[in-house]
Amino acid sequence: MKKLRLHTRYQNSAGQRVRIVLNLKQLPYEYVAIPAVSSEAYRAINPQGLMPTLEIDGRAVAQSMAIVELLEELFPDPSVLPADPLLRAEARSFAYLISADLHPINNNRVRRYLDGVLGVDERQIRDWYRHWVGEAFSSLERQLAQRSARYRFCFDDRPGLADACLVPQIDNARRFDCDLSPYPLLLSVDAQCRQLDAFKRAAPAMQPDYPGR
Ligand SMILES: N[C@@H](CCC(=O)N[C@@H](CS)C(=O)NCC(=O)O)C(=O)O
Predict the structure, then answer these.
(1) 211 within a domain of the structure (yes/no)
(2) pTM (2 d.p.)
(3) How many helices and strands, by DSSP H and E, does the chain display?
(4) pLDDT tens across 132-190, in order?
(5) How many Cβ atoms are within 10 Å of 194's Cβ, its own excluded?
(6) What percent of the chain shows pLDDT beyond 70?
(7) Which residues line ligand 1 (CB under 6 A)?
């Protein structure tokens, strides 16, 4: 068995995706809590200085989606993608809308730049955040409404990549008090996922570095 070490932090939503996939695949891993992403020690592992990084037998891989693909290739069973190629593409399209389009413009470093460099006030930053969540979640909701069949999870009757990307993003949206009532299909998948051990164990409050644990 390969030795897996995940560098992450409790509130690292890209890392939460990877934690969910590791749990769905029942892969044991060491949780390495990152004290400071900007430290030289961490940048030696991940030159971009972002979380998460997976160390696998001592080799470091950055970017949550690259990590998930690697896990899928090394440990294909159980798969986190549907069997049908078109459904697989739909699941990836859903996951990439979150990971490539939504998450990068709303994450901490962007908000820090808006605040610290551009002097944007807190209310405007909240508006920015909610605007992009609304744009993305409306598209995701329509994507689920257009599925050829109604599944228990996003694109399958078992949880997978799309669900692993959705749930952390809903956690973030709740932290920012976004109105989620226009997205009943997203909320129904989220509720199904939250009943599962793989998702519960990946949640921010369950991580060893969660404050007060
Ligand atoms: N595209 C990257 C995004 C990674 C990312 O933005 N991580 C955030 C946390 S979710 C981070 O490390 N932020 C550090 C900071 O803001 O200082 C991935 O999917 O791994």
Answers:
(1) no
(2) 0.96
(3) 10, 4
(4) 999 999 999 999 999 989 899 999 999 999 999 999 999 999 999 999 999 999 999 99
(5) 13
(6) 100
(7) 12-14, 37, 50-52, 63-65, 99, 107-109
Domain count along the chain: 2
Residue 168 forms part of a structural domain: yes
pLDDT of residue 15: 98
CA–CA distance from 34 to each of 7, 12, 104, 125, 150 (Å)?
Answer: 6, 10, 20, 26, 39
Same domain, 93 and 31: no
If you measure from the C-alpha of residue 64 to the centroid of ligand 1, how many angstroms do you get, rounded to a whole number?
Answer: 9
- Using the atom order of ligand 1, give the atom closest to the CA of residue 67: 20
Token digits for 141? 């909701």
- Whether 89 and 26 map to the same domain: the answer is no
Are residue 101 and residue 178 in the same domain, yes or no? yes
Whether residues 31 and 94 share a domain: the answer is no
Q: What gap in Å lies between CA 210 and CA 54, rounded to an integer?
A: 20
Which atom of ligand 1 is found nearest the CA of 9? Answer: 9
Res. 16: pLDDT tops 90: yes
- The boundaries of the domain holding residue 25 are 4-78+200-206
Same domain, 106 and 33: no
**Among candidates 65, 132, 74, which has minimal Cα distance to 93?**
65
